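Hi support team,

I submitted a single chain yesterday and got back a structure, but I'm not sure I'm reading the token output correctly. Could someone confirm the output below corresponds to the sequence I sent? I've pasted both exactly as they appear in my results page.

Thanks,
R.
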Amino acid sequence: MIGVLVVDDHPAVRAGLAGLLRSEPGLVCLATAESVATGIDAARRMEPAVVLVDYDLPDGDGLTLCSDLKALERPPGVILYTAFARPRLLAAAAVARTDAMLDKGAPAEELFESIRTVAGGSARLPTPPPEVMERSYALLDPEEIPIFGMAVNGAPPEEIAAVAGTDPDDARRHLRALLTRLRGSTAEQEAL
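Hi R., thanks for writing in. Yes, this is the structure output for that exact sequence:
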């Protein structure tokens, strides 16, 4: 069985996803949570294989939670499951080490397949389109571009640290700073 944690601020969405997961053989909803804080707490306690993370949460955003989940001792697979699943979010999702991104409007079969793919360890976010990469580069200092490039290509903080000649905690701080800038840019774009 693939254990799934659902993190969404809407009670009806949480209940609906829990019921949907119960209906699919091989999947089980271990718990639901409504915020970044309760999501990280539930992930520590339950150790799910996969976490479905909504983008818009009351105490932060799903990108922050994705990043925090990936920093756990035994990180789960993470799917950013959002109504904002647009190409412009891909760069920030990659920096947050999200394994997959799926629109909430996708069919249930696509959700199930994404969960299985992420749980199997073979999920990979698509490369952000060139225009998203160009906008992202414009937000960064020249010395941050290699770190960003490695993050977008799936390099974990340990690998980024080794290439940059620093320690993994420093690499995580750099990634958090990049995520803050990219997230702000994504929020501005969503408002347009």
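A quick pointer for reading it: The chain is about 50% helix and 15% strand. Let us know if anything else looks off.

Best,
Support desk
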